[in-house]
Amino acid sequence: MPNIAFVNGKWSRLSAAKISIEDRGFQFGDGVYEVIRTYGQEAFGLKEHLNRLKTSAGEIEIPIPYSTAQLETFIRLGCQRSKFSDTNIYIQLTRGAAPRNHPFPKTVRPTLVMTFRETIKISTEVREKGVAVISLPDIRWGRCHIKSLNLLPNIMAREAAKRADAFEALLIRDGFVTEGAGSNVFAVLGKRVLTPPVSPFLLSGVTRDLVIKLGKKAGLEMVEEQLRLQDLKTADELFLTGTTVEVLPVIALDNRSIGSGCPGKTTAILYNAFQNYVQKTS
Asked: How far apart (Å, rounded) are the C-alpha atoms in residues 189 and 187?
């Protein structure tokens, strides 16, 4: 089955989908997005993702042209049409198409695009081995809690990680860790599992929030607290969370081993708790 798209109410093959060249998402990055994945036909964290889309859109004053119930229906229909065993759903909302001018146009219809592609899973080998990450200055704007289309700093950071043979780049602002270029980060220090607190400088991930809840349920001391780069380098364990990475162990930071240099027990506990949760809810 080919990848498919939904553009303002119309379904098509992804390769045939089109938007106006004057769309403000293309011209200015004037929009927001969400990434949702399914396990089977069930969209994981659907309510939370759509709530975050609504919040991001509200922050930049873009009305969503469909109700939450309609979006849920379209998402389920897209999953049925794509027929993938697991699907990655990308939702992009822009202010719409209008003659190029910086201020908001007075009359414009928002553009809503959804694409449905087969999920490319992280291999068992990578999960068992763990991944390496690098650290970079966080040069993004001051409203990172909005899931904005403006991802150039993230793209540059990810490319730097790729060139360093690393999986992810962790971003440092004013001496403190914010998040990864495409993930949230956790550190295990002794008996505590720490992650940077919610602020305008990071996006509070749906998976991040769930892992905190699952960790508390498992009896772990889950703490939201500012972390310095040195805290990560001296941590017993590090791991990343996110829609596509789930719970992923980190074994090296800036070419320096973390802990024993192997995935740790706490990370394994949280990964297993996450997988058990997925199996019960999908």
From this structure: 6
What are the catalytic residues?
147
Over the stretch 118-173, which tens digit does the pLDDT of each residue have? 999 999 999 999 999 999 999 999 999 999 999 999 999 999 999 999 999 999 99
C-beta separation of 202 from 145 below 8 A: yes
CA distance 208 to 202: 11
CA dihedral for 267, 269, 272, 278, sign (positive or negative): negative
- Edge-to-edge, what's the strand order for the sheet holding 42-43? 10-13, 4-7, 111-118, 87-94, 31-39, 42-43
Distance in Å from the first CA to the final CA of the chain: 22
Rg (C-alpha) for the chain, rounded Å, is 19
User: DSSP secondary structure string, 236-261?
Assistant: SEEEEEETTTEEEEEEEETTEE-TTS
Asked if 264 contacts 236 with a C-beta cutoff of 8 angstroms, the reply is yes
Closest to 109 measured CA to CA, from 6, 9, 14, 4: 9
75-126 pLDDT, tens digit per residue, is: 999 999 998 989 999 999 999 999 999 999 999 999 999 999 999 999 999 9
Q: Is the dihedral of CA 90, 94, 98, 101 positive or negative?
A: negative
Task: Confirm whether pTM is higher than 0.85.
Answer: yes
